[in-house]
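Lecture notes, part 5. Sequence design as translation. It can be helpful to think of inverse folding as translation between two languages: the language of shapes and the language of residues. The source text, in structure tokens, appears below.
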């Protein structure tokens, strides 16, 4: 099993909170797609002929692409990789791009899973984030997607936003669970260096939400998701009827994946590599046969730490048996010694050899993960 991530770096407007690599220069779209297809050919052996079970269009804003451009990319992947007939193809989209006509077009390409960047149903907060859509457009986008035939729809929300009240957050959650979505990803706002929000925070012109309020919003998220039959299968991800994101779950379970496009990351179990986060340099490198990526060979400590980081966040947890088989006695002993205090205080639960975070543990997951790392 393997996955492919495709980074579409184009945005029509830059959101004030986002630190993913993007550009508003959409005039480069065809050159970018040509470069992308060249990279696909160059890296066709990266996954060593493993069956590709997930393809993920991320960004940026993939929904700036039209049906023919999406088709070009998918056709290139099918020519050079072994793609499962049941492949999960996820497509990130902004609500204002999802007209009924556009949804019908992308449905024809074989895309069956949508990840819709709603972020909030509060128009004032959407405006403050520099989002292009309003609440009505978000609702209409999800409803139109369902009418088109999409039955694997994920909605993104953000909490911990400046000025977001508990009542507004409850209203956002009430609305999203009323819609025909099968998955919700809800992330706490992070102030990333280089974003407008970060700059304003440092200048003092933007006030960060108090930590206690953020914790309350996280707790409300967990409670309301559960009430609506959504399982929290990872700290920030909730699914109904087992509709997990197969692609993101593969990341957490250590499955190989290839990242295509500027800033995209790849992982093959031995090393991690990442492409240059600059579209002009990316295109020029692919046109000229120059290098466009860097690589880090993972040490055994790196591999152990990544296993802890990704697995403890999920319902699948950390397996002491798997730790011993993969990393030996020393690291397993380290883990068992350090996890015990969290198990004893009710932050971690144990079932046979599997350790997972309790609901209390979710609130302090960063501290737990840090203390389980092997330096």
């Amino acid at each position: 099993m393997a996955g492919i991530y495709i980074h579409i770096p184009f945005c029509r407007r830059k959101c004030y909170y986002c630190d993913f690599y993007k550009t508003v220069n959409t005039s480069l779209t065809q050159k970018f797609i040509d470069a992308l297809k060249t990279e696909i050919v160059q890296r066709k052996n990266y996954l060593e002929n493993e069956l590709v079970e997930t393809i993920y269009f991320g960004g940026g804003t993939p929904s700036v692409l039209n049906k023919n451009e999406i088709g070009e990319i998918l056709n290139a992947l099918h020519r050079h990789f072994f793609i499962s007939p049941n492949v999960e193809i996820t497509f990130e989209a902004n609500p204002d791009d999802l007209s009924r006509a556009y949804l019908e077009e992308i449905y024809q390409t074989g895309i069956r899973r949508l990840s819709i960047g709603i972020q909030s149903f509060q128009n004032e907060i959407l405006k403050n984030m520099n989002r292009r859509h309003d609440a009505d457009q978000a609702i209409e986008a999800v409803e139109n997607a369902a009418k088109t035939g999409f039955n694997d729809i994920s909605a993104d929300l953000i909490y911990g936003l400046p000025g977001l009240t508990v009542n507004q957050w409850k209203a956002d959650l009430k609305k999203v669970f009323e819609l025909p979505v099968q998955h919700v990803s809800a992330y706490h706002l992070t102030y990333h260096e280089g974003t407008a929000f970060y700059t304003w925070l440092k200048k003092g012109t933007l006030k960060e939400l108090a930590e206690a309020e953020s914790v309350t919003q996280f707790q409300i998220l967990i409670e309301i998701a559960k009430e609506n039959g959504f399982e929290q299968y990872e700290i920030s991800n909730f699914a109904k009827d087992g509709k997990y994101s197969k692609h993101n779950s593969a990341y957490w379970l250590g499955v190989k994946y290839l990242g295509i496009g500027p800033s995209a990351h790849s992982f093959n179990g031995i090393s991690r590599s990442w492409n240059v986060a600059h579209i002009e340099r990316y295109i020029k490198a692919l046109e000229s046969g120059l290098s466009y990526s860097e690589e880090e060979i993972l040490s055994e400590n790196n591999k152990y730490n990544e296993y802890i980081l990704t697995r403890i966040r999920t319902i699948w947890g950390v397996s002491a048996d798997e730790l011993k088989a993969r990393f030996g006695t020393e690291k397993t002993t380290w883990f068992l010694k350090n996890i015990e205090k969290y198990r004893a205080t009710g932050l971690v639960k144990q079932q046979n050899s599997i350790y997972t975070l309790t609901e209390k543990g979710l609130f302090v997951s960063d501290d737990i993960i840090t203390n389980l790392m092997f330096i």
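The translated text above is only one of many valid answers, since several sequences can fold into similar shapes. Residues 300-372 form a domain with the Arc Repressor Mutant, subunit A fold (CATH 1.10.10.920).
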